[in-house]
Structure formats: structure tokens, C-alpha cells
Design goal:
single chain; flat; mainly alpha; about 130 residues
């Protein structure tokens, strides 16, 4: 009843900071979604908002941002890399690296890949010992 009252009075939008229309568009972009219940839309928006707040707060507290009194991209990417809860975001929030460093990494991966093909059996034994 409380949710219906909020919807009728138009206060629902004030209970979430994220724009419900944008959330609806994102939800509808999924092929499995045909219609969106108003309560489901509101709860998705609120859950997303709380998740973003948690990610930002955690990243701020555990990052270098505290020293600068600012939340940085580096803080967010560090959280995605180091904290198990947020590791699913690692692809979305990758560590920033210089292009030259990235090219060197690609070269190394290519070389390592060629080496692995030559002695695959030996590599696996080494991993078991570690």
C-alpha cells in the first residue's frame, strides 16, 4: 500500500536519485524483458543506487582518495581488482595503463603463449607446486 501511495502522489521519483526513464530503457534493452512492472522498476533503480553508493564509499575508504579528499577512477579500479565482492567489475573498471606498457604486455603474452605451446606439460607441474 505504501508503494502504491508513493506512486500515486508522485513522490517515488524523489526516493531515487537515478532517472527511472533511463533505468526502464536499460531494462527494456534486454531481449528477455517484455514489460516492466512499476514496482520492479523502482526497486531496480533503488538497488542500483545503493550499490553505486556502496562501491563509491568502499573505494573512497580503501583507496588513496582519502588523502586527496576525492574519489578517483584509480580507487574504483583498485577496488574492482582487489575486493572479491566487486571483482565482476574488473573488465568494466580496468586499471589505467600507458599504451606503450600495454603494447609491451601484448608482446610478452604473445611470447609466453609460444613458449607454453612448446612445453605445456612442464608449466602445469610448476603451477601445482606453487
Amino acid at each position: 500500500a505504501e508503494m502504491a501511495a508513493a506512486r500515486l502522489s508522485g513522490t517515488e521519483n524523489r526516493l531515487v536519485s537515478l532517472p527511472l526513464s533511463r533505468i526502464r530503457v536499460i531494462m527494456k534493452s534486454s531481449p528477455e524483458v517484455s514489460s516492466i512492472n512499476q514496482d520492479a522498476l523502482f526497486l531496480t533503480a533503488k538497488a542500483t543506487e545503493l550499490f553505486v553508493q556502496y562501491l563509491a564509499t568502499y573505494s573512497y575508504k580503501h583507496g588513496r582518495g582519502k588523502e586527496k579528499n576525492a574519489l578517483t577512477y584509480t580507487d574504483l579500479s583498485h577496488t574492482a581488482e582487489e575486493c572479491e565482492t566487486f571483482q565482476f567489475l574488473a573488465d568494466i573498471l580496468p586499471k589505467k595503463i600507458l599504451a606503450s606498457k600495454y603494447l609491451k604486455m601484448l608482446e610478452k603474452e604473445k611470447r609466453d603463449g609460444e613458449v607454453r605451446e612448446d612445453n605445456e606439460g612442464e608449466e602445469e607441474e610448476d603451477e601445482d607446486k606453487a
